[in-house]
Amino acid sequence: MGASAKLDQAAVLEAAFQVLDQAGLEGLSLRLVAERLGVQAPALYWHVHDKAELISLMAATFSEAAAHAILAGKTWREKLILSASARRRAMLARRDSARVCVMARPLRSAAELAPQLTAPLVAAGLTAPQALSYQAAVIAYTVGWVAYEQSQAMHTFLTQLIDFDDSFATGLHAMVSGLPAGEGRS
């Protein structure tokens, strides 16, 4: 890249993911991200305050992928399944993504984030507390599942026993099917 004029948060994130994919979470550093971009590390501080914020921004991209999968006209159960599947696909495209998600700190307050998380599910018939609880359960299931897929030892072992895609879908559908319906439609 070379020119700091082209440097923006999206470029920093893409470079960070390239470093993550190449060096893993242990190798991720602002210095290496800056090198990848052809700038000095202090140039990154216009776009991210520190490594912790960078990790949080990286984790947020998986939430964005999940949010984009939610389609109008779907039931809340379908929305949960579609968003979890999109989150998993996005996470599997990046090395150590489950660990990134677990390490991330929230970028916004709970009061700012809750309405965004709940709106699609509330519109489909859930109460706000149900929507938050169900989202949390599905996200935890998805991140945990990806952690097993990304752990070489567990991946090698589990591959002998299950098909990851089929088993993820089976477990996700069972979980979502067992959640009580909201006040509206299921």
Would you spell out the secondary-structure blueprint of this structure?
Elements: H1 9-27, H2 30-37, H3 51-69, H4 76-92, H5 97-103, H6 110-123, H7 128-150, H8 152-159, H9 164-177
Brief digest:
With 186 residues, the chain is an all-alpha fold. The protein contains nine helices and no strands. It is globular.
What does it look like?
With 186 residues, the protein is an all-alpha fold. It folds into two domains: 1-48, Arc Repressor Mutant, subunit A (Orthogonal Bundle); 61-177, Tetracycline Repressor, domain 2 (Orthogonal Bundle), CATH 1.10.357. It is built from nine helices and no strands. Helix 3 crosses helix 5, helix 4 packs parallel to helix 7 (128-150) and helix 7 (128-150) runs antiparallel to helix 9 (164-177). The termini are far apart. The relative contact order is 0.11.
Top CATH class of the largest domain: Mainly Alpha
Instruction: Fill in the CATH topology of the largest domain.
Output: Tetracycline Repressor, domain 2
Please state roughly what percent of the residues sit in beta strands, choosing from under 5%, 5-15%, 15-25%, 25-35%, 35-45% or over 45%: under 5%
How many discrete structural domains? 2
Instruction: Please give the count of helices.
Output: 9
Number of strands: 0
Uncertain ranges: none
Rg of Cα set: 18 Å
Output mean pLDDT.
Answer: 91
Structural category is mainly alpha
Per CATH, the superfamily of the largest domain is: Tetracycline Repressor, domain 2
Helix-strand string: HHHHHHHHH
Largest sheet composition:
none
CATH-level-2 architecture of the largest domain: Orthogonal Bundle
Cα distance, first to last residue? 49 Å
